[in-house]
Design goal:
six-stranded mixed beta sheet, 8 strands, Nuclear Transport Factor 2, Chain: A
Length: 193
């Protein structure tokens, strides 16, 4: 039985149990109806909690496996094809292909970039907010927009970042906001003092 059907069957069973219990106690139809409504609300909350847990588990997989191991073909498991991504500097990109190219660029100079922990995870309905610990080593040349390269410094990156996401009913993000301090990022890699 699929997940949706299981939820419906569970909700119907819960409502039936409440109505049956109310009728066997001799409650009026109105009281039994209110009890059934409460059971329906409880089932809806339970379904919402399940979706929230599913989004957070998917996010753990995204950061700890897909992102950290550069499994770009799996990004579609958590991102809509037309995802909008808002980056720390405020610019936005549109589409999963563009997002993948931007993510790949993060690994050129810091090939071991990874998320090592999610110390804070908050969610409500279709929204998640997750704090991550991002680590890596500046071990390869970094290309600059003017075509020059910056030699690797060997410096380590160890900083916090955060992602706020809106999830669709299909279980993928349609908008992702990324937050980290670019000055800290550059200072830790030895690009600025």
């Amino acid at each position: 039985m699929n997940r949706k059907m299981s939820s419906v069957v569970g909700m119907v069973a819960a409502m039936f149990a409440v109505v049956f219990a109310a009728c066997s106690r001799g409650e009026s139809g109105a009281n039994a109806s209110r009890s059934a409504e409460s059971a329906g609300q409880a089932a809806a909350l339970n379904d919402s909690a399940g979706k929230i847990a599913e989004h957070l588990m998917k996010f753990d997989t995204l950061d700890f496996d897909v992102f950290s191991n550069q499994k770009w073909d799996r990004l579609k498991e958590s991102h809509a094809a037309d995802v909008t991504v808002t980056w720390p500097d405020g610019h936005e990109t549109h589409g999963i292909d563009r997002h993948i190219e931007d993510l790949k660029a993060m690994f050129v100079a810091v090939p071991d970039t990874r998320i090592t922990a999610h110390p804070i995870k908050i969610a409500n309905g279709h929204w998640t907010a997750v704090v991550g610990n991002m680590q890596g080593t500046f071990s390869r040349p970094m290309k600059t927009p003017d075509g020059k390269t910056i030699p690797p410094t060997g410096k380590k990156l160890n900083m916090q970042m955060a992602t706020v996401a809106h999830w669709t009913d299909a279980g993928v993000m349609d908008h992702e906001w990324l937050f980290w301090d670019n000055q800290t990022y550059m200072r830790q890699l030895g690009l600025i003092k």
